[in-house]
Amino acid sequence: MATRLDQPREIRRTLLPRPHYDPESFGRLSERIARFLGTARFLVYMTVFVAVWIVWNLLAPPALRFDPYPFIFLTLMLSLQASYAAPLILLAQNRQDDRDRVQYEQDRARNERSIADTEYLTREIAGLRVALSEVATRDFVRSELQQIIKELDAKDRPPSFPRSPRL
């Protein structure tokens, strides 16, 4: 059913109000958690936590042990941690994919503009070369002027008469 924009929405009443969260804030939080889960520091913390848990439940007095040998509660805790970590990591990856996609699109647009600019400049240079072949160059004008000067010098000099040999 298509929603009509010219009419207000129907108000849905529920027993419990729906929680409202900012997807951007939640995404940033998930990225921070995923970034932390991928560090050596997290592995060290988790290893120390598990080792302390096991040592405590093996060596502590029987009255203070809260998770006997098969460590079922520890397994439950690690499973719970993994069940939350996986979706958070996936959310962080999706956000990174979105950022990469935008970056690739911007790079592609920038490359297309660069190619268009290069083609334009190539056409302009080709046009200038064609125009210069029809226009007198500096060297051509210089050689023509030198030739005209030589011709004028030759006209201004009195004709040279052949010298008669001295007797």
Q: What would you note in describing this structure?
A:
- This protein has 4 helices and no strands.
- It has 167 residues and is mostly helical.
- The protein has one domain (23-154).
- Keywords: Membrane, Transmembrane, Transmembrane helix.
- InterPro entries: DUF1003.
- Given as residue ranges, the uncertain stretches (5+ residues, pLDDT < 50) are none
Got a strand count?
0
- Termini separation (Å)? 129 Å
Percent of residues in β-strands: under 5%
Structural class: mainly alpha
Helical region count?
Answer: 4
What does the largest sheet look like? none
What is the averaged pLDDT score? 87
Radius of gyration: 44 Å
- In total, the number of domains comes to 1
- Give the CA-based shape: elongated
**Helix amount, in percent?**
over 70%
What is the assembly state of the chains in this entry? single chain
Pfam families: DUF1003
Protein name: DUF1003 domain-containing protein
Transmembrane segments: 42-59, 71-91
Organism: Actinomadura graeca
Which terms would index this structure?
single chain, 4 helices, elongated, about 170 residues, mainly alpha
